[in-house]
Amino acid sequence: MPTQTLFTQFLNQHFGAFTTSLLQAVHVHPKYPAYPITDSFAMELLVFLVLIAYFILVRMTLSVEKPAGAQHLAEMTHEFVSEQGEQIIGHGSERFTSYLTSLGLFILLANLMGIIPGLKSPTAYAVVPLGFALVTFIYYHYHGIRENGWAYIKQFLGPVWWLYPLLLPIEIISHLARVLSLTVRLYANMFAGDLVTIAFFSLVPVGIPLIFLGLHLGVAVVQAYVFFLLAAIYLSLATAHDH
Amino acid sequence: MKKLQYLFMSLAALLFATPAFAQSTAAASPGAQWVPLAAGLGMALAAGLCGLGQGKATASATEALARNPGARPGIFIFLILGLAFIESLALFTFVIIFLKVQ
């Protein structure tokens, strides 16, 4: 049996058999058939539930006269995201605010979860950042095509026609490398943060690891911001008109 | 001349040190003894050069901020972006080491 957090064990006890049969219906064989739900999935589900609960709470307590604490927080988040979007994407950034807000909040919460004892960061497993990166990749290409139509292909080509065959593969590789770099940046930062804390805990078990936990807190916030910022920049590049 | 002497002395010490390492890992594949050394050296190179790059970027950003405090938001975005990109190079090294060293 793999070591799992309490929440994952709870999920496996109640939904384990069902998940295994579901996975085997699509010919996927989990490593431990009795415990098919991994920590990363359970923690992601937890983040999802917390965020949904938060959004519902904000929606229920919306009021013009007496804004509650949750509403203040939501307004601050919205203001921050739309300000950044306006600054980076410029005109027409309102369309992307919802995606950027949910992406940023999800990653922030997922990163900060590793600090709480008994929980783990889902972003410390490579598959979770890969999911974020792939969704961002599809999303900005979709909006690039929607905004520019067939002219979107011009972004992949050079300024003159005889450069086209040279630049097309380079651009395609560089767009795919964005997925890699987004994934590895988030994953390695979160993973290395946990690892550093554990390594210093094995050297000095009292006091010193706390410094690295504080550092990890800072890194978690900055990496969530960086992921959000890069998604916004890729969106702005994809939806730019004159190229 | 003195420096050369030190260099050769340290090199000689290193050369004599190798048989001592070799005896303990006779069962492992040849060259496995060098893996921790290579991992440490690789990570140290990556971290050091990444530190140099980040230091340069931060120095320019603070200088620019001192000259023109009004440009704070723009500089901040580019600083964070640059630091993230520089840092990801060191992290690539970390991931490769993690994949290769078992």
UniProtKB/TrEMBL annotation, chain A:
GO CC terms: plasma membrane; proton-transporting ATP synthase complex
Protein localization: Cell membrane; Membrane
Membrane topology category: Multi-pass membrane protein
Alphabetical keyword list: ATP synthesis, Cell membrane, CF(0), Hydrogen ion transport, Ion transport, Membrane, Transmembrane, Transmembrane helix, Transport
Biological processes per GO annotation: proton motive force-driven plasma membrane ATP synthesis
Keyword Acetylation: no
Broad class of the protein's primary localization: membrane
TM stretches of this protein: 41-62, 96-116, 123-142, 162-180, 192-212, 218-237
Stored InterPro entries: ATP_syn_F0_a_bact/chloroplast, ATP_synth_F0_asu, ATP_synth_F0_asu_AS, F0_ATP_A_sf
Record keyword Membrane present: yes
GO molecular-function terms, A-Z: proton-transporting ATP synthase activity, rotational mechanism
PANTHER family: ATP SYNTHASE SUBUNIT A, CHLOROPLASTIC
Family under the similarity heading: Belongs to the ATPase A chain family.
Role of this protein: Key component of the proton channel; it plays a direct role in the translocation of protons across the membrane.
Name used for this protein in its record: ATP synthase subunit a
Source organism of this protein record: Tunturiibacter lichenicola
Gene behind the chain: atpB
From TrEMBL, chain B:
Swiss-Prot/TrEMBL site (Reversibly protonated during proton transport) positions: E87
A cellular-component GO term for this protein: proton-transporting two-sector ATPase complex, proton-transporting domain
Membership in a protein family: Belongs to the ATPase C chain family.
Annotated gene: atpE
Span of domain V-ATPase proteolipid subunit C-like: 37-99
Membrane topology reported for the UniProt record: Multi-pass membrane protein
The keyword ATP-binding appears for this protein: no
Organism domain of life: Bacteria
Residues of the signal peptide: 1-22
UniProt name for this protein: ATP synthase subunit c
Function comment: F(1)F(0) ATP synthase produces ATP from ADP in the presence of a proton or sodium gradient. F-type ATPases consist of two structural domains, F(1) containing the extramembraneous catalytic core and F(0) containing the membrane proton channel, linked together by a central stalk and a peripheral stalk. During catalysis, ATP synthesis in the catalytic domain of F(1) is coupled via a rotary mechanism of the central stalk subunits to proton translocation.
GO molecular function: lipid binding; proton-transporting ATP synthase activity, rotational mechanism
Transmembrane segments: 32-53, 74-99
Primary residence: membrane
Pfam families attached to this UniProt entry: ATP-synt_C
Classification of source organism: Bacteria, Pseudomonadati, Acidobacteriota, Terriglobia, Terriglobales
InterPro entries reported for this sequence: ATP_synth_F0_csu, ATP_synth_F0_csu_DDCD_BS, ATP_synth_F0_csu_sf, ATPase_proteolipid_c-like_dom, F/V-ATP_Csub_sf
Cell compartments where the protein resides: Cell membrane; Membrane
Keywords for the protein's UniProt record, in alphabetical order: ATP synthesis, Cell membrane, CF(0), Hydrogen ion transport, Ion transport, Lipid-binding, Membrane, Signal, Transmembrane, Transmembrane helix, Transport
